[in-house]
Model the fold of this input.
Amino acid sequence: MHETVDLEEAAKQHVHSVLGADDGIQRADPHWQEFARRLDVHFPDLCGLFRSLYGTRPDWQDQLGALVLQCARSWQERSADLKALDAEREGNSGWFQSNRMLGGVCYVDRYADSLDGIRDRIPYFKELGLTYLHLMPLFLAPEPFSDGGYAVSSYREVNPKLGTMEQLRALASELRENGISLVVDFIFNHTSNEHHWARRAAEGDPEYSDYFWIYPDRTMPDAFEQTVREIFPDDHPGSFVPLPDGRWVWATFHTYQWDLNYANPAVFRAMAGEMLFLANQGVDILRMDAVAFIWKQLGTPCENLPEAHLLLRAFNAVCRLAAPSLLFKSEAIVHPDEVALYIDPAECQLSYNPLQMALIWESLATRNVSLLQQALERRHNIPDGTSWVNYVRSHDDIGWTFADEDAAELGINGFDHRRFLNAFYVNRHPGSFAQGVPFQDNPRTGDCRISGTTASLCGLEDDPDHAVGRILLAHSVAFSTGGIPLLYLGDEVGQLNDYQYAMEDGHEADSRWVHRPHYPAERYARRHDPATPEGAIFAGLRQMIEVRAGTPELAGTRLIDFHTNAPGVLGYQRPGDAGTILVLANFGDGPQQLPAVTFSGFSGAAVELLTGAALSLADGVTLAPHQYLWLRVSPAA
Done:
């Protein structure tokens, strides 16, 4: 204990000497005192985390001093309006848990051509009710092999086809003025092989070669690959790819995406600098891409290692010093137990909810809610100060991420069930309504994931009447379970698959582009016509958005079980100070009658919030196919 205190004190003194020796720090600036206050509060955490990661190195204190100096300089460069936002959100740390939060996500080029085009759509975003806008990767990336922007060549340059960093900064400011938080991806597991760090490494520069996992021959790659799984076997076998000079570099995903070596503290400092730069452009939330993969250790799967959590905590501690209002959103498509481990106020304050997404689709296919009900009971409630991001679909494929042990409790064989779901959603199963496309179909292992827009997966191409019901039913769960509901923009008007995706350079081998169509202008033009599928979907979603915004019980994430005793009907409660909202959702193709005894814990009177209708629970409740109800209820006397 004394040794730990002594090391921390020595590190603190070293940091202060580094800060004191830097002539660039303007100590007379009144904002400097705010940084000094934050340093006193947060330095112990940062020091402890940094020492845990790098304390075996003789230069760890020097590296820590350089990191804090970076933070101080970044804080001084932070604009006055962003510092004011920091102060405001420090007093309202739960701002992102509001029932008025609504997210949208899109690719800039496909939705609006450019950043200026996104600015032009702000009036529509306000019409829809957006408070959170996630722009898919928009930084400089090699074309056509950019992995949709996830192979970053520069974190400080916008793809020139989209605009400039100045335009991004102006967009962030205008969004903020309109109550919309900007979200961008922070691809921090890897860079493009065209990033200047990677170019220097490829040239043999020893400093930058240490930024990546590069080995002179196959000895270490072979050793690592004994325990590391292939992620994209269609792209390359194993985890390493050869360089022209005979060396081998770690590439978890595509051959042109080289994994960063966080065992090197210089890499941590470099990426912290990129992170703070983006924060100072006005970014509110960073989607932390591929968090499960960021730490490597021989003899392990190199996924979900304890050091990955230490790294996230250390990055958070950096933010608390220099960009206090910045939040992290985790992207971890792994076992549900592992997903939950990243959700913490000190790691990722927000997290995608991939299990709920996958099980919404599972319930639509099976007309049985057992797995989804089980997940809500066991895996929904998360720590205070955090939030789910709930979605029906994202830019990515659908993978069946439920735990086999959870399925087994319900008598479901996980392997067989995934094969059924894959067949169902690519329309290879009798009775399927879906028009999905397989992604990474592996006949050898039976593995497959699913591509497709929400509308096409729900059957809008062939059976609009039933498909609209499925689309709204699926979104009703994402909107009412608790967290930030996220729309893939265009889905709110029923956009369909783009079967011409393979005609675009670089897209032919990636079926996920089928569900990333260009802006569906004709569909948006029909959004106010209730006689069209577009109008029916848009009206149904707007109704949910408005009712949710006016229902304080739907803030936060807390959820309480409710068993309907009907295999096709999902039920759950959202408690609040004003009462309780009971949600019912019928995933069956026929009407479902719930007898009065189902509601024996409540008083007889209820109000359905979406329609304003009064119901008598004493008479039981009958739900039409794909109907969902948001009932305000009170306990029985």
